[in-house]
C-alpha cells in the first residue's frame, strides 16, 4: 500500500469510517508506525490504543504503557500491572489498583500474600 492509499484511508477514518480506521491501525502496527497509531488514539480509536499497548509491551516500554493508561486504555493497564508484578513494584500496582484496574488488584493481593 502506498502513501496515497494511506492518505485516502486517513480521510475516511477522519470522517468516522471505523473500518478504514481499523485497517489504518493494522497497517500502522505492521509498520511499527507509532506516530500514526497515536494519531488514531487521539481520535478515540481503541483498537489503535490496544495495538500501541501490545507494541509497547513487546518493547518493555513502561513509559508508553503509562501514557496509554492515562488515556484510559485497560489493555495497557493490564500489561503495566504484569510488568509491575514481575518487578515487585508494589507502588505501581497500588496506583493502578487505586485507579480500579482489577488485574492490578489481584496481582497486588497475591504479592502481599507472598510477603507474609
Characterise this structure.
- By secondary structure, this protein is mainly α.
- The protein folds into two domains: 1-59, no CATH class; 62-116, no CATH class.
- 82% of the residues lie in helices and 0% in strands.
- The protein contains eight helices and no strands.
- The longest helix is centred in the first third of the chain and has 14 residues, at 18-31.
- The radius of gyration is 17 Å and the shape is elongated.
- The model has no long low-confidence stretch (mean pLDDT 93).
**Helical amount among residues, as a percent range?**
over 70%
How many separate helices?
A: 8
> What sort of overall outline do the alpha carbons produce when their principal axes are compared?
elongated
**What is the succession of H and E elements?**
HHHHHHHH
Number of domains: 2
How many β strands by DSSP? 0
Q: Could you describe the largest sheet, including whether it forms a barrel?
A: none
Category from helices, strands and their pairing: mainly alpha
Terminal residue distance:
56 Å
Q: Which residues sit in consecutive blocks of at least 5 with pLDDT less than 50?
A: none
**Strand fraction:** under 5%
Mean pLDDT: 93
CA-based gyration radius:
17 Å
Task: Name the descriptors.
single chain; 116 residues; mainly alpha; 2 domains; 8 helices; 0% strand; elongated
Condensed summary:
The protein is mainly alpha-helical. The chain contains eight helices and no strands. It folds into two domains: 59 residues, no CATH class; 55 residues, no CATH class.
Amino acid at each position: 500500500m502506498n502513501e496515497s492509499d494511506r492518505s485516502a484511508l486517513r480521510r475516511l477514518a477522519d470522517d468516522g469510517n471505523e473500518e478504514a480506521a481499523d485497517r489504518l491501525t493494522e497497517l500502522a502496527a505492521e509498520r511499527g508506525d507509532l506516530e500514526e497509531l497515536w494519531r488514531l488514539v487521539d481520535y478515540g480509536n481503541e483498537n489503535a490504543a490496544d495495538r500501541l499497548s501490545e507494541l509497547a509491551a513487546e518493547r518493555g516500554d513502561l513509559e508508553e504503557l503509562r501514557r496509554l493508561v492515562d488515556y484510559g486504555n485497560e489493555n495497557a493497564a493490564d500489561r503495566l500491572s504484569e510488568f509491575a508484578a514481575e518487578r515487585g513494584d508494589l507502588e505501581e500496582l497500588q496506583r493502578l489498583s487505586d485507579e480500579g484496574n482489577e488485574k492490578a488488584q489481584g496481582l497486588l493481593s497475591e504479592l502481599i500474600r507472598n510477603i507474609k
